[in-house]
């Protein structure tokens, strides 16, 4: 039978299964016959095949004794009547021979495979076909092996790719699929642009920089921005939208209010004319108050003496001035 279920060790959110080797169990009434010795260094994986076989010896049944009628007096029975003669003793069953020995079954065949699992083929033999994920050489069954990062490694090959420290039975990290020890992983982390400390947990990337989530705040109100929209100042500082518009939004010359884009899409841009800023709906002729087009066409602005006018009002004022 196979040993108990393998225990799991959590290593940096990656489960590495370290399975105990298979071991033959013998009941008190069974006798072990021609069992092969176990390996001195069993593999530390549940996928290792086991070639140990056990052939139990079967107990030979003895012949049952012949039973006679216990009510009769032992001795010689004499009678002239043949009907009075005692019945003959029932023939004893012939002594059965030894039963046919069943075919030997390996331990891997006796153990029921898990649902969806793979069963080792008997023809695989004692040789291993796994290739080490680092040196690309075969991993024999006589050597310890480590299953990590969806690969198989020699115990000596599973090491930090920076300092080459062994990682067997140690806490390790992965970065771009490369195993690293804790010291090398900490050295590879980015510093926070705001506080300068190393970012060990969650990171926010914005403006080609890395931040701690609590450090990514508005420079004015100090409120965390998180995943909300934000704006960048003149020297790279981060603002929430409200504080950014309060500081940088232009003021409309017509209504004297800040030009702030709205959620419905209006005021998404500022109309510039004669060095002044206007809301889209405030960009009108100063005489007739008709809405002007921001494009330089017939419906656009025709300024005169620093005033924004439509074309008809512009022509009228020019004609009056010429009289």
UniProtKB/TrEMBL annotation:
Residues 22-105 are annotated as: Disordered. Residues 130-191, 250-320 form the LIM zinc-binding domain. GO terms for biological process: cell-cell adhesion. Residues 40-54 have a biased composition (Basic and acidic residues). GO terms for molecular function: filamin binding; metal ion binding. One of its GO terms (cellular component) is stress fiber. The keyword Repeat applies. Signal peptide: none annotated. Residues 26-39 have a biased composition (Polar residues). InterPro entries: Znf_LIM. This is LIM zinc-binding domain-containing protein. It comes from Phoxinus phoxinus.
């Amino acid at each position: 039978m196979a040993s108990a279920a393998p225990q799991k060790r959590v290593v940096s959110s990656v489960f590495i299964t370290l399975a105990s080797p298979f071991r033959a169990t013998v009941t008190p009434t069974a006798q072990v016959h021609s069992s092969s010795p176990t390996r001195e260094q069993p593999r530390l994986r549940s996928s290792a095949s086991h070639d140990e076989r056990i052939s139990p010896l079967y107990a030979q049944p003895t012949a049952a004794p012949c039973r006679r009628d216990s009510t009769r007096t032992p001795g010689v029975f004499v009678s002239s009547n043949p009907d009075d003669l005692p019945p003959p003793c029932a023939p004893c069953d012939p002594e059965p021979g030894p039963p046919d020995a069943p075919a030997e079954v390996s331990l891997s065949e006796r153990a029921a495979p898990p649902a969806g699992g793979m069963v080792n083929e008997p023809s695989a033999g004692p040789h291993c076909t796994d290739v080490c994920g680092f040196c690309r050489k075969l991993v024999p069954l006589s050597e310890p092996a480590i299953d990590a990062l969806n690969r198989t490694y020699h115990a000596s090959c599973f090491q930090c790719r920076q300092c080459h420290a062994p990682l067997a039975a140690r806490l390790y990290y992965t970065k771009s699929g490369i195993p690293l020890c804790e010291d090398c992983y900490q050295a590879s982390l980015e510093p926070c642009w705001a506080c300068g400390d190393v970012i060990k947990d969650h990171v926010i990337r914005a403006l080609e920089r890395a931040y701690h989530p609590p450090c990514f705040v508005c420079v004015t109100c100090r409120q965390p921005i998180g995943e909300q929209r934000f704006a960048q100042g003149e020297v790279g500082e981060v603002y929430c939208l409200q504080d950014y518009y309060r500081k940088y939004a232009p003021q409309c010359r017509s209504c004297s209010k800040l030009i702030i884009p709205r959620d419905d899409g209006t005021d998404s841009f500022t109309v510039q004319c004669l060095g002044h800023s206007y809301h889209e709906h405030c960009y009108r002729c100063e005489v007739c108050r008709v809405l002007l087009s921001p494009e330089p066409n017939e419906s656009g602005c025709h300024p005169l003496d620093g005033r924004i006018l439509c074309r008809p009002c512009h022509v009228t004022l020019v004609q009056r001035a010429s009289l």
